[in-house]
């Protein structure tokens, strides 16, 4: 009988309903891998206070994109598509595994054991490694694996910033986005790569996130033959964050006389609040106020070409394990 291999698509998760928003925020701010809120003993009480204070604004923002995050649904669709495409390669059970909302690692691990999985591949849906995203998900998975006494062997795919099939589908999305502008305007469209921001101290402490973002951009621009600008969105809190911020970048481009912007959500492979609300609503509105037209490239979601990229990553991980 063929060995059953479990594949976990690791992602942040998101509140699916309005009543999920506050507990989701609490889970997020309770994670010391992302932010340290005073001494460890005070992390959860402070997280509860922040969640309570931020929940009304967050609920209103989620209401604007349909009431909740589409991320759990999209990740489940990605898992289903990947399981189907892997069917000819062996026996693979693919599930989404979220960090801050359902389905959590403990439940997913128990399901894997229940269906006879004997080893796991952890595939983060973050192409670029960061300790606050991939690192936190890996740590959470390891801790639950040990806590449940399962000791399932786990092959971790750390990052994949220049994976050719991932780059190929991003290039396709960018070309599709450029086609939204009139043919005579396309040469005068500024590409803007917007990535989730990060406290500067992470990079100072050796996190490779920005370096890996630049690897993706280099691979894209080699195929596109045009250059873009990198900026960072979704900063929060009083610490020093990576810059320039996306709003500051838009102001700068307006001052330089640009009229057309194509924004590419670089670190996000699935649509969620940062793409559907921040980019498609907030930044589009800001650009319009500055006299610019802003369009955005579509999320990769469960695009068949993106699913092929995920399949390649999984099969490479299997081969590496066999050869190690």
Identify the notable features of this structure and list them briefly.
324 residues; alpha/beta; 2 domains; four-stranded parallel sheet; 11 helices; 48% helix; globular
Explained architecture:
The chain folds into two domains: 176 residues, Rossmann fold; 133 residues, 3-Layer(aba) Sandwich (Rossmann fold). 48% of the residues lie in helices and 15% in strands. It contains eleven helices and eight strands. Strands 2-1-3-4 form a four-stranded parallel β-sheet, with helices on both faces. The chain has a four-stranded parallel β-sheet with strand order 6-5-7-8, sandwiched between helices. The longest helix is centred in the first third of the chain and has 22 residues. It is globular, with a radius of gyration of 20 Å. The mean pLDDT is 95.
Mean pLDDT: 95
Tally of individual helices: 11
CATH uppermost class of the largest domain: Alpha Beta
Order of helices and strands: EHHHEHEHEHEHHEHEHEH
Number of domains: 2
Count the beta strands.
Answer: 8
Largest sheet: 4 strands, parallel
- Helices and strands: which structural class? alpha/beta
Helix content: 40-55%
In short:
The chain has 11 helices and 8 strands. With 324 residues, it is α/β, with parallel strands linked by helices. It folds into 2 domains: 4-160 and 305-323, Rossmann fold (3-Layer(aba) Sandwich); 164-296, Rossmann fold (3-Layer(aba) Sandwich).
SSE arrangement:
Blueprint: E1 4-11, H1 21-29, H2 43-64, H3 71-85, E2 91-98, H4 105-114, E3 119-124, H5 131-147, E4 154-156, H6 164-178, E5 189-196, H7 200-204, H8 209-224, E6 228-233, H9 246-255, E7 260-265, H10 273-289, E8 293-296, H11 304-323
Parallel strand pairs: 1-2, 1-3, 3-4, 5-6, 5-7, 7-8
């Amino acid at each position: 009988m063929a060995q059953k291999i479990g594949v976990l698509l690791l992602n942040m998760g998101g509140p699916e309903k309005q009543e999920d928003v506050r507990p989701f925020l609490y889970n997020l701010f309770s994670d010391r891998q992302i932010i340290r809120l005073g001494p460890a003993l005070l992390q959860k009480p402070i997280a509860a206070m922040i969640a309570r204070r931020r929940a009304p604004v967050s609920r209103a923002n989620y209401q604007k994109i349909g009431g909740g995050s589409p991320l759990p649904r999209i990740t489940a669709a990605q898992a289903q598509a990947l399981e189907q495409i892997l069917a000819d390669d062996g026996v693979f059970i693919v599930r989404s595994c979220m960090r801050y909302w359902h389905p959590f690692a403990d439940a997913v691990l128990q399901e894997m054991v229940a269906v006879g999985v004997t080893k796991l591949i952890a595939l983060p849906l973050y192409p670029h490694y960061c300790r606050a995203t991939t690192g936190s998900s890996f740590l959470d998975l390891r801790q639950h694996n040990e806590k449940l006494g399962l000791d399932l062997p786990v092959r971790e795919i750390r990052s994949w910033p220049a994976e050719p099939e991932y780059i190929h589908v991003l290039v396709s999305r960018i070309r599709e986005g450029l086609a939204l502008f009139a043919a005579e305007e396309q040469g005068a469209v500024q590409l803007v790569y917007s990535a989730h921001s990060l406290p500067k101290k992470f990079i100072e402490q050796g996190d490779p996130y920005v370096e890996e973002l630049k690897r993706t951009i280099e691979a894209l621009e080699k195929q596109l033959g045009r250059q873009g600008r990198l900026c960072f969105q979704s900063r929060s809190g009083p610490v020093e964050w990576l810059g320039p911020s996306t709003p500051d970048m838009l102001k700068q481009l307006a001052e330089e006389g640009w009229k057309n912007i194509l924004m590419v959500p670089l670190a996000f492979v699935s649509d969620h609040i940062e793409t559907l609300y921040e980019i498609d609503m907030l930044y589009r509105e800001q650009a319009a106020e500055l006299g610019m037209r802003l369009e955005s490239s579509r999320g990769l979601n469960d695009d068949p070409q993106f699913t092929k990229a995920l399949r390649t990553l999984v099969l490479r991980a299997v081969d590496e394990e066999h050869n190690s």
